[in-house]
Amino acid sequence: MTAQLRAQRISVVTTERVSSPGLRVRDVINLGRQPYTNWRGHLSDTDYEVIADAMRTVDVLKFANQPFDSLSDGERQRVMIARALAQDTDVIVLDEITAFLDLPGRVEVMSLLRTHAHTMGKIVLLSSHDLELSLELADRLWIVDEGKVKAGIAEDGVILQAIANAFDTKNVRFEPAIRQFRLRDPMLAITDPP
Length: 194
Prior knowledge:
- Residues 4-99 form the ABC transporter domain.
- The protein is α/β, with parallel strands linked by helices.
- The chain folds into two domains: 3-131, P-loop containing nucleotide triphosphate hydrolases (Rossmann fold, 3-Layer(aba) Sandwich), CATH 3.40.50; 140-194, no CATH class.
- The protein has seven helices and seven strands; from the N terminus they run αβαααβαβαββαββ.
- α3 (45-58) crosses α4 (73-87).
- It is elongated and about 60 Å long.
């Protein structure tokens, strides 16, 4: 597969802090269309429509003309997701994309990716340590523990037990029945004032 064909089929968003000196947010998102342009990089009317739709979907229109490097980490992450959507690939691979987002932002981004996958017939594959949110929004889960992989749906007892096996600690346990992590001793949450 050529690099161009691969870029038309798979887009990637990493947790790396991307820097693009001199580029506006709009310019960074425009780069998502590069696999479809000619050697001069000329964008068509269709390209601009796809870009505008991606910016609306991820809610980055409000800072489209700002310098990319002036954005917070969370805003940059949204821009990189918009770039991936503008790339319009069948598969989007994302690595810990919610790492720089606050709780409402994490829920919103994960939800919009799920909606995008379902409405556009795309595959969204992401790695995440946000297990409770993943259990709520993912269609399928893969749990990797000590080199072994368990796969299934959130309602699958095997997956829930795999989560408990992989992430339970001395002080924290995963409760499969409610799909949440809890302190083993609730008194650990209470601390004496200094």
